[in-house]
Write a structure and sequence with these properties.
alpha+beta, seven-stranded antiparallel beta sheet, 275 residues, elongated
């Protein structure tokens, strides 16, 4: 026997299993219909996803001991009450509303949390990527890594981001600490319900650029103020990305992460040939 899952939001007990798509892994989903399939049922891969399968078997879903499973605080659990309601007509697209009515809130890393757990995640949203689930003792000072432990747990990811920060456009935030880097990177992993994992460099770069708009918004405001001066009218329409490239190159060449207004004016005049 093997367990597989239906993610069809309209799945009913009477649906033919051959009309459904079945999944081995539902790590990124918070509820599903779990089926107990006999070992002799014939499955074929559906598309290019190694976790996605179909069958030509014409039995109904109800013949495979179906149950509703819901992810509560990182653990997928059989929800017997929801199963009973589903067998009596509730559809999976209605599960989320029912779970909310019970007082639970959704969080991408853990599935559904009670109010106390959810509040804890809100307070520590930059660090919960370190946890498999929210612990019972929320006052334990050892819940999160100490500053000295960060490199031990995520050194290769820290080095990965430092390599990206070596590019000139990231000079204004190149002094990020190991803690800041790993918390940033871990948050990106959490968006996809993962703990620390490999993320494509282009995705990390795009996220860093977006963060710069928040972390160093002072750059944009200062350069925009200078561009508002009459002599800079020909280049006043510089985009945020162009400003970042310009500012980053200037920081890179000067070795500073913060530039004076005079240095910015002088560099703008030189680069864009403004008299």
């Amino acid at each position: 026997m093997k367990y597989m899952f239906s993610l069809d939001n309209y799945c009913s007990p009477d649906k033919l299993i051959c009309k459904d798509v079945l999944f081995f892994n539902i790590r990124e989903f918070n509820y599903a219909i779990r089926l107990a399939l006999p070992d002799d049922i014939a499955l074929r891969r559906k598309g290019c996803d190694a976790c996605c399968y179909a069958t030509d078997d014409e039995r109904r879903i109800s013949e495979f001991s179906p149950v509703v499973v819901v992810r509560y605080n990182g653990q997928l659990r059989v929800d017997r009450e929801m199963t009973e309601r589903w067998l009596n007509g509730l559809r999976p697209y209605q599960f989320y509303e029912v779970i909310q009515e019970r007082g639970y809130r959704g969080w991408s890393r853990f599935g559904f949390l009670n109010e106390k757990q959810y509040s804890f995640c809100r307070r520590h949203s930059d660090k919960v990527y370190q946890l498999k689930r929210i612990p019972r003792n929320l006052s334990d000072p050892g819940i999160f890594w100490s500053e000295e432990e960060y490199y031990e747990h995520g050194g290769r990811y820290i080095e990965k981001v430092r390599g990206i920060l070596s590019k000139k456009e990231f000079a204004p935030i190149r002094n990020m600490t190991d803690v800041e880097i790993l918390d940033f990177y871990g948050d990106l992993c959490s968006i996809n319900s993962h703990r620390l994992c490999e993320i494509d460099d282009d995705y990390v770069e795009e996220a860093l650029l977006e963060d710069m708009m928040t972390l160093r918004r002072d750059i944009l405001l200062e350069v925009r103020e200078i561009l508002a001066e009459e002599e800079f009218a020909p280049i006043r329409d510089m985009t945020w990305r162009k400003i970042l490239d310009f500012y980053g190159e200037l920081c890179d060449s000067s070795g500073c992460s913060k530039l004076s207004s005079e240095a910015i004016r002088s560099a703008l005049k030189e680069q864009f040939h403004i008299n």
